[in-house]
Amino acid sequence: MGKTVAYIGCILMVLLTAALATIFFIEHGSKPEPALVAESSVPIGDYQYVLRDYGGKLAVFEADSVTPDIVFDVYIKNLPEFDIKELQTGVYARDTEELNRLIEDYIS
Q1: What are the strands of the beta sheet with 70-75, ordered from one edge?
Q2: pTM
């Protein structure tokens, strides 16, 4: 029982660390070189970030980029079917607060 609690605690710490690293790199990281704009039916001018599938993993993109700012070690195939469909087209966030909330939803 004690090992199970310790294991769960370690997993939670890894997830928290990943979320905090994401926040840091989004706010303080270097910007990638300009890339092609991803096609979307959502007007990207209203959004700063997009969460979507990148190589089967959860990734954060600036809304007008095809190069991810960060890729999480969270496999999309392990998420519920609804989330998989959303991430295939992209889940948009207006600001870092909304982005952080979405990331927390997907990695927890």
Answers
A1: 70-75, 57-62, 49-54, 91-93
A2: 0.59
Report the alpha-carbon distance of residue 6 to residue 20 in Å, rounded.
Answer: 21
pLDDT at 60 over 80: yes
What lies within 8 Å, CB to CB, of 33 at 6+ separation is 67
Q: Please list the residues that pair with 91 across neighbouring strands.
A: 51
Amino acid (1-letter code) at residue 80? P
Burial class of residue 67, CB neighbours in 10 A (0-12, 13-18, 19+) = middle
Q: For the chain, what are the domain ranges?
A: 2-107
**Within 10 Å of residue 64's Cβ, how many Cβ atoms?**
16
64 or 99: whose pLDDT is higher?
Answer: 99
